[in-house]
């Protein structure tokens, strides 16, 4: 990213909305936003294959692996406002497991882009399916979108839930239900 160019554009935006970018409270805002954009859009420079790297281990484990309540923050590509929440991920290995920290890092790589929740959910699932070649992958994302909280319909309590079920999670309802019960979304 070109930090100077972003700062210049933010300064111009401040002028266009009727602000004075030279007043005390706004003087450093364009540079702060440019630095912030490098951080919150870091996913564009992250390759999921490099994130996983050599953290795939050959193990004869064939039961469900679940990482739940992975916090994330992203930016809606339609309004450039934040959406945030949690991601729950499960996979059933076929002789390969991945290091625990890699799944949240994969989530972050996709969340730190202009994004829609539906696409992010599928990207996480497809990436893990491709890189691990498990029997199946399940991903559920629960998020609050500020584009529907602070503007538009203005409903502060609504949450969007999306899912992507691949392999055995799509084919076998018992496997899917086990995952849902583990993350606290299934029937008792």
Q: Would you count the extended β strands for me?
A: 7
Low-confidence spans: none
N-to-C SSE string, H for helix and E for strand: HHHEEEEHEHEHEHH
SS class: alpha+beta
Per CATH, the architecture of the largest domain is 2-Layer Sandwich
- Biggest β-sheet: count, sense, barrel? 5 strands, mixed
**CATH homologous superfamily descriptor of the largest domain:** GTP cyclohydrolase I, C-terminal domain/NADPH-dependent 7-cyano-7-deazaguanine reductase, N-terminal domain
Shape: elongated
The tally of structural domains comes to 2
Approximately how much helix is present in the residues?
Answer: 25-40%
Backbone CA Rg? 20 Å
> If you average the pLDDT, what whole number results?
96
Ends: how far apart? 49 Å
What do we call the CATH topology of the largest domain?
A: GTP Cyclohydrolase I, domain 2
Determine and state the CATH class of the largest domain. Answer: Alpha Beta
Helical segment count? 8
- Which strand-content bin applies to the residues? 25-35%
The strand line-up of the biggest sheet is 5-2-3-6-7
């Amino acid at each position: 990213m070109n930090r100077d160019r972003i700062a210049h554009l933010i300064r111009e935006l401040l002028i266009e909305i009727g602000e004075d970018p030279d007043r005390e409270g706004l003087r450093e805002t364009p540079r702060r936003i440019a630095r912030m954009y490098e951080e919150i859009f870091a996913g564009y420079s992250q390759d999921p294959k490099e994130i996983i790297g050599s953290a795939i281990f050959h193990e004869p484990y064939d039961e469900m692996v679940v990482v739940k309540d992975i916090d994330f923050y992203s930016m809606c590509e339609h309004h450039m406002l934040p959406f945030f929440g949690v991601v729950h991920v499960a996979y059933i290995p076929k002789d390969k497991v991945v290091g625990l920290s890699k799944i949240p890092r994969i989530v972050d790589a996709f969340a730190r882009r202009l994004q829609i929740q539906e696409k992010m959910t599928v990207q996480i699932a497809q990436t893990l399916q491709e890189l691990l070649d498990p029997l199946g992958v399940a991903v559920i994302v629960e998020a609050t979108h500020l584009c529907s909280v602070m503007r538009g319909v203005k409903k502060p309590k609504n949450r969007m839930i999306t899912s992507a079920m691949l392999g055995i999670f799509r084919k076998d309802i018992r496997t899917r239900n086990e995952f849902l019960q583990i993350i606290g979304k299934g029937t008792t």
